[in-house]
Amino acid sequence: MKLMKENNFTRRKELVCSLLKQLKDTCLQLKDLAEEMGGSADLYLQKVFSENNDEIMALVEEYNGNIRQAEEISQQMTCRMNDWFAFTTDEKNLSGFLFPLRYYLEKKEVKSFINRSRDQISEKVIRNRFVREKLDGMEEKLRSRAVMKIESEEKFIAFNELSGLKKEILGHLSYLMPTIPDLCPLEFTIDDIDHLIVKLSPVG
After folding, report:
1. CB–CB of 165/25 below 8 Å?
2. How far is 21 from 178, CA to CA, in rounded Å?
3. Which of 42, 111, 135, 175 has its CA 20 to 30 Å from the CA of residue 153?
4. Residue 13: Cβ within 10 Å count
5. 97 exposed, middle or buried (CB, 10 Å; 0-12, 13-18, 19+)?
6. What are the angstrom distances between the C-alpha of 38 and each of 42, 47, 150?
7. Which residues contact 146 (CB under 8 A, 6 or more apart)?
């Protein structure tokens, strides 16, 4: 009976040792695949964005163009206000017989110009809000497309299979390891695996 118990204990240790070796191999494969996929993810993303570069650049140019136009309109407003100030402080204009009428007409025209300019700037700002939303939506859409391409890749499928295998091995280990009294710690990292394998391997 005692011999049978010792044999069962030995087999459990051997099984845990074998599972740890398999776990280590699986983790190393996962690490290598993750590094390869990290590079391919960037390439896929770059390719997808490159394929849509013309549309992206057109939106970016429209966005920048709206900013430039808004700045030009703002400068025109400043110049028009400076002209208005110069008109109202010019001694020659002030002493003119028709100055009250000219003042009224000029003031009305300046006010109209300022209102039109503000409306134009507001239009550019609103337009850029839509352009920015479109760019954000396009970026999200292109990233999703890149992810779909990556997910269809053999490496990604292999990575998922290895992840499932790792989870299965850990499940077995979490059940078996507590049944071995001298096995400590029960929680371990990938760096501890070699030490545990040595500890469980038969001496000699």
Report:
1. no
2. 18
3. 135
4. 19
5. exposed
6. 7, 14, 10
7. 41, 44, 45, 47, 48
What is residue 204's predicted lDDT score, i.e. its pLDDT? Answer: 42
DSSP class per residue in 81-135:
HHHHHHHHH-HHHHTSTTHHHHHHHHHHHHHHHHHHHHHHHHHHHHHHHHHHHHH
Which residue type, as a one-letter code, is found at position 111?
K
**Pairwise CA distance, residues 26 & 159, whole Å:** 10
The tokens describing 178, both together, are 């507590």
The number of residues making up the chain comes to 204
Contacts of 177 (CB under 8 A, 6+ apart): 16, 183, 186
- Residue ranges of the domains in the chain? 2-200
Question: Each residue of 104-154: pLDDT tens digit?
Answer: 888 899 899 999 999 999 999 999 999 999 888 888 888 777 776 766 677
CA torsion, points 10, 16, 19, 25, in degrees to nearest 10? -100
Other C-beta atoms within 10 Å of 179: how many?
12
Q: Which residue has 């839509």 as its token pair?
A: 130
pTM of the model: 0.52
Tokens of 3: 């011999």
What lies within 8 Å, CB to CB, of 94 at 6+ separation is 88
Chain segment 155-170, per-residue pLDDT in tens = 777 888 888 988 898 8
